[in-house]
Amino acid sequence: MPREQLILEHKSRLADSLCGDSAEPRAIVLMDATVIPIEKSSNYSAGRKSFSQQKMCRAIKMMVLCAADGYILQVIGPTFANQKNNDEGIFEAMTTEGNELYDPGFQPYFERNDCVVWDRGFRKVVTRAERMGFDVKMPALKPRNVRQLSVEEANRTRAITMIRWPVEGIFGRIKQVFKRCDGRLKNTQIPSFGNIFRICCALTNAYFPPIRRENDNELYIAQQVIQRTERSNIFFQYLQDNNMINRRVIWRPLNAAALETMPENGPLNIDIDEVLTDFPQLNMDDLRDITLGTYQLKLSPSYTAEHVEEDGKYMIFYNIQDRGILQVRLQSRHSNAKEYKLFIRYDPSEDHVESIKGWYYDCPSGARNVGYCAHIASVLWYLGLARHQGEIPVPARGVFHSVLDSANGPEQNSDSDINESDDDEIRADADTESESDST
């Protein structure tokens, strides 16, 4: 495909606006690789080269270059999946003359100041790409011993994520439609898999609509991203200045506010709906306007279902100094040992989007104000919308009913005491035997 056709026919207004710091039209290319698991092999050398430390399995990789709308331009591979064949290693090989992955047409195809959008896996070849004339867009890197990205870095990272998601969507579409590209690959299929994958990509280009479809809302989203990127997170600064993030004494459970005014013989089970009556009602358009996307809202039911109590209500804390600030403590999605704190500021005198004045979350990218993460989305979705619509939907409610959990049961302290006493007896016997042996 000629470069001019790429610029004119396979563009995205959102990507053009967020990468549009150039006066002239330029090509925007997304790059990423996907991993295809393979079987064990009796060829031990190939087995070591194909072992992916990231996926912890033997695999091969396919690198894809696509346009901003998801149109596939080039496929590279298959390659091994070890550390030497990571994303940055593949890019360095394809731009190094004499390497078996060298592509002589890659660099001449592009012109100076064309934009390439990467993930963090290419971080070590950013300087190389910039020397070649590319304008590199990549999410910010969190320095070591730093817990959270700055507001500017988090905003920029969110903007880049909004540009580069089509390349991830392409992998999902190919693996969903073409089952040969999904699951574990037989080793006898490896020699022909490169051609099979390219055919699947060609069929995707020919018979499927673009993964990113142009709509009138994209220009509005781009304008909102640019405006919010230039603003600092005022609410985050307010929390820091008043030391509200780490102080526990200024926070009270929301139910405690009702208990203070409850009659002496009043009910103990207090519904949050009866306490948090001034929180504004929101609709899906309001939530989409703040998130600047739909992905976070799709995850909201899952997060909400995990973090509600047995009575179906969130445990929420209010600030005794400012009742318009709420705190919610959320369990990490990936680790039982991690717990994050979320803060929301609202104004009950206003309606819809204007009522949400600020948000902050102490996860690595939680300081941004270009949209918010799925954790904040789940709380706003619950408080502003779902709790007014009846029962909270629980995703995949009946799927795991037949799966047993050995940890679900009463604690057996007596057994543990017996085991401890048995251990003591075993140690005593061992000491006696060792003493007799020494004599």
Describe this structure in words.
- The chain is α+β, with helices and mostly antiparallel strands.
- The protein has two domains: 3-229, no CATH class; 234-388, no CATH class.
- The chain contains 16 helices and eleven strands.
- The protein has helices at 3-9, 13-18, 44-49, 87-94, 106-109, 126-131, 151-177, 190-207, 217-229, 234-241, 254-259, 272-275, 284-291, 295-307, 374-384, 413-438, and strands at 28-37, 51-52, 57-67, 72-80, 115-117, 135-137, 251-253, 316-319, 325-331, 339-346, 356-361.
- The strands form two sheets. Strands 1, 2, 3, 4, 5 and 6 form a six-stranded mixed beta sheet that branches.
- β8 (316-319) and β9 (325-331) form a beta hairpin.
- α14 (295-307) crosses α15.
- The chain is globular and about 70 Å long.
- The relative contact order is 0.10.
- The model is unreliable at 257-270 and 432-436 (pLDDT under 50).
- Its cofactor is a divalent metal cation.
- Keywords: Metal-binding.
- This is DDE Tnp4 domain-containing protein.
- Residues 417-439 have a biased composition (Acidic residues).
- GO terms for molecular function: metal ion binding.
